Amino acid sequence: MTTSLEMFHDQLRQRFDDKLLSSALANDQVTLELEPKNLIEVCSALRDEDAFQFSQLSDLCGLDYLTYGQSDWETQDTTSTGFSRGVSVDSINENQNMHARFCVVYHLLSVNHNRRLRVRCIIKEEPPRVTSVVSIWASANWFEREAFDLFGILFDGHPDLRRILTDYGFIGHPFRKDFPLEGNVEVRYDPDKGRVVYQPVTIKNRTLVPRVIRKDNRYEKSEELKSESE
């Protein structure tokens, strides 16, 4: 039997067939994938047309697919047992060749129809650039600033695109996969200048390895008693 969600998915595909890269229905969630050039047209229709009425943007976020699906650990034992990136064993090699490195994900809500929709916009440009949807959903303002701050994604037409979480002098975008774990600079208070100053990073990045416990204190006393009784 065809469910209402499947009918909704078919309705979206028929309406935006020539505008989509792909569409999917999985885990009770419909996802539309499109290019930046079609973003404003599709989003405007999703908001304004009676069949959809997605009047609310619940969330907007950036994604970096660099090294997607690759294991974080090089050891032979742990990589085969799942002690690496949080993906299932069967999906590690899936979608490693993505359309592009960056994308922006929009989560939409239709209050009138009680439906949710996910729209994923694939960005092939470098630097990553997409048109702002602030004119369609005002709630995108701070979401887009966050995506710019953390991923370096530019939103054309945004009324005030500047960092929102990191400091004004922050270098780089910390949610990019190639951003160094120790950062690029560090801050400290300079008593001579009477203010906080930036300086090169002094901490050293190191790879943590599981610690091997060779002696368990829980059994020391019982072993001592055993040896005394003998």
- Ranges with pLDDT <50 over ≥5 residues? 82-96
Q: What's the total helix number?
A: 5
Give the helices and strands as they follow along the chain.
HEEHEHEEEHEEEH
Helix content class:
10-25%
Strand order of the largest sheet: 1-2-5-4-3
Instruction: Give the helix/strand class.
Output: alpha/beta
Number of E strands = 9
Binned strand content: 25-35%
Shape: extended
Instruction: Calculate Rg over CA atoms.
Output: 25 Å
Account of the protein in words:
Helices cover 22% and strands 25% of the residues. Strand 6, helix 4 and strand 7 form a beta-alpha-beta unit.
Briefly summarize what is shown.
With 230 residues, this protein is an alpha/beta fold.
What order do the helices and strands come in, and which of them pair?
Elements: H1 4-16, E1 20-26, E2 29-34, H2 39-48, E3 56-64, H3 76-80, E4 102-110, E5 115-123, E6 129-131, H4 140-151, E7 154-156, E8 185-190, E9 195-200, H5 220-229
Parallel strand pairs: 2-5, 6-7
Antiparallel strand pairs: 1-2, 3-4, 4-5, 8-9
